[in-house]
Structures are given as structure tokens and as C-alpha cells.
Amino acid sequence: MNLEPQRNTELLIDAEADDDVVQQTPPTVSRPWLLLLGLVLVALNLRPALSSLAPLLSEVSSSLGLSAAKAGLLTTLPVLCLGLFAPTAPILARRFGAERVVLGILLTLAAGIILRSVLGEAGLFLGSLIAGASIGIIGVLLPGIVKRDFARQAGAMTGVYTMALCLGAALAAGAAVPLSDYFGDSWAIGLGFWMVPALVAALCWLPQVGQRHGAHRVAYRVKGLLRDPLAWQVTLYMGLQSSLAYIVFGWLPSMLIGRGLSATEAGLALSGSIIVQLFSSLAAPWLATRGKDQRLAIVIVMLLTLGGLFGCLYAPLDGLWAWAIVLGLGQGGTFSLALTLIVLRSRDAHVAANLSSMAQGIGYTLASMGPLAVGLVHDWTGGWGATGWIFAVIGVAAMVAGVGAGRARYVGVSSEKV
User: Fold this and answer.
1) Where are the transmembrane segments (predicted)?
2) From CA 291, how far away is CA 300, in angstroms rounded?
């Protein structure tokens, strides 16, 4: 596969009210393999801060005396920040350049990870906020860098990017408890360790800083996206499927511990489920684009997700790994299809950039309500059984939105030069 980056345009979303998009023509990247390595290492760091907490949540709550409601807020806060801080990414990129922003935010991510491990309850919540905000900003910028510098291999590079996300999540979910045990039952070490790969990624990303100067800019405007029903269906599908994903990241190990598993076993079950996502995240978009539209694929992956969730929550534990695999197949497909829909429903790259910002900003904000609801319901009922209703409501709503978003048509807006 030829990795020579194409001279292409950088699309940055202006978060101001006129919804301008800036087209920027950068020079060719001289060392594509170094850029690819940097992208992979950065992507690996976009989930460990989220997935490392779940296996240790019971220990953290017990150590700090957190109620289930507070624990729910702790799992919700980073996801909420993904949505709230996503619109700041284009503003920062226009001011400082995408490469510099990625480097700086990797350092703030490392700071947030270590902060939540050293200052008790206050540090735990403040560090989670910083980490979530950092992930939200980088998550918006990386796909644009991939599109700009690997335009001829955008599909393959997006697959590599998605696989790196899943791998980082799986490693953190599986290793958090063993790390904590190895260092004397210290949950702070189990959480704080993930500062190290963030610093390594920052070091490897350093050569990318200062690569582009003085690019020509042409502004584009995309109007009316917030009034388009199809754009809202894409956004709702992104948000609702993400809500189920972050419920799994935040609460699945606690649910399994409540059913009798050890913290290590619960963490490994989550890790195994995420590893399976590596396969379906690549396969689902390829299969979905072979038909006339994506509606059937969306229904299938959402049914797999719900089946896996209900199996993990209610089925006998001797079949847990089978249900974890079903869950991973479903969730890998739902996430990758959500990203694919943004591209397929857009007439051009400028519309896609704006639709991506809308889907991530609003969608992730919506997604944060799921983990919070699970924490509140558990606090009210004293058990996990009633949370199945939350899964059902979110899953059915995601299918309804997804069937609308999966139709073979474009959002009813276009881009124009200003």
C-alpha cells in the first residue's frame, strides 16, 4: 500500500455562527511512515482514560466513599466533555495549527490522567474533566489529518485509526486491575499509569509540529444543517450508539462484579469484548456499502449489541464470553457505521466536516446521559436488573434514528464559497 501522502486540502470547521469551513493547502509530508506511527500512537491514547476506570470503579468508590450517583457522574463527565469541547478543536487548529494542538492536548491529557490519581475525590473529578476534554479535542482533529495527508488511502487509514482506538481501550480495560494489584492494590497506579503512553505519543508526535506554514486559505460556508432532518438522524444515531458504548466502558465491569466475578475477570471480559470490535469495525462498513443502503446493517449490529448487553446482564455466567463476543461484534459495527454515515450522507467534504462536528458535538453530549442514568437507577434500586430498561430504550431509539440515517440520500445542504 502506497503511503505517500497526497497534496490535498485541510478542512477545518469554524465554530462561529456562519459555519465557515477553511480549505488549506499544505505541502507534502516528507516522512509518511513517521506520521502514520504518530497517528497510531495518538489514537491509542483516546480511550484508556475512559476504559481503565471501569474495572477499578468499585475499588475507587469504596476507597473514596462515592455513592452510585457520584460514580455515575464520574463515568458521565468525560463523555460529556467529548461533546462540549469538540467545537473548540477547529478554533484551536485555526489559531495554532492542528499538529501543535494535538501535541499540546496530549500533554494536557497526561496531566489529567495523573491528576485524577493523586488528589483524592476532587482530583478524580477534575482530572476526568481534563482528560475528557482533551480526548474530545484530539478526536475531532485526527480524522481531518488522516483525510488531508492520506487522501488516497483515507478508507484504509480510517480503519487503522479505528483499530488503534479499540486496541487502546482493550489494553487499558484488561491491564488496569493487574497493574493495580502489582503495585500493592493501588487503584491510583492502575489509573495513573496511562499517563506514560500519552507522553510517549507526544514525543513521537513532536516531529510533526511546524510542518506547515503559510498555506492558502479559501473559506466555505455550509448553512442549514441544524434544520435538516437527515442530519439530526445521523447525529442521534451517533449519540445513542455512543451512549451504549460508554455505558459498557463505564459500568459493565461493575455489573459483572455485582454478578459474582472478580475485578480481574470483569476487566478481562470488557477487554475481550473490545478486542472483538477490531474485526467488526472494519467489516461492517465494507459490508454495509455493498447494498443499496445501510438500514439492514444498522439494525443487525444494533440487535447484536442489545443481545450482548442483555446476555451479559441476565444470562448464566458460564456463557459470559460468548455474550461478550456478541457485544463486541455489535458495538464495533455500530461505531464504524456511525462514522461511515457521516461521509455517505454528505455531498462534499465541506458538508462532511460540518456534519462530523454536529454529530460529535451534539451526539457525545447526548451520549453522556446514558452512563449517568445507569448510575442513578442503580442507586435507586440497589441492583443492576432495572438497567436493562435503559439498554432497551436507548437501543430501540438508536435503531429508529439509524434506519432514517441509513437511507441512500444526502443531507439537504451544500457548501458555497464566501
Assistant:
1) 33-51, 71-89, 101-119, 125-146, 158-180, 186-209, 230-249, 269-289, 296-317, 323-344, 351-374, 386-405
2) 14
Instruction: Examine residue 5 and state whether it is found in any structural domain, yes or no.
Output: no
Q: How far is CA 308 from CA 112, 165, 175, 214, 377, in A?
A: 32, 21, 22, 51, 20
State the Cα–Cα distance between residues 75 and 90, nearest whole angstrom. 26
In a domain, 4, yes or no: no
Is residue 14 domain-resident?
Answer: yes
CA distance 286 to 281: 9
> Which pTM value belongs to this model?
0.76
Closest CA to 205 of 394, 22, 379, 35: 35
Residue 59: CATH number of its domain: 1.20.1250.20
Q: Are 259 and 312 in contact (CB under 8 A)?
A: no
Each residue's pLDDT tens digit, 360-413: 888 888 888 888 888 888 888 888 889 999 999 999 999 999 999 999 888 887
Q: What is the Cα 258 distance to its own chain's centre?
A: 26
- Phi, psi (rounded to 5 degrees) for 13: -90, 125
Least trusted range by pLDDT, from 87-96, 198-207, 228-237, 298-307:
87-96
Distance (Å, whole) CA 135 – CA 383? 31
Q: Which domain holds residue 111?
A: 10-417
Residue 215 within any structural domain of the chain: yes
Look-up: residue for cell 442521534? Answer: 236
Residue with cell 513521537: 204
Which of 403, 273, 374 has the alpha carbon at shortest distance from 331? 273
310 has a pLDDT exceeding 90:
yes
Burial of residue 119, with CB atoms counted within 10 A of its CB: 0-12 exposed, 13-18 middle, 19 or more buried: middle
Measured CA to CA, the distance from residue 141 to residue 197 in angstroms comes to 19
The answer to whether residue 88 scores a pLDDT higher than 50 is yes
CA 57 to chain centre: 20
Is a pLDDT exceeding 90 seen at residue 316? yes
Domain count, the chain: 1
- At 59, the amino acid letter reads E
Q: Which residue has the higher pLDDT, 6 or 325?
A: 325
Residue 218: DSSP 8-state: E
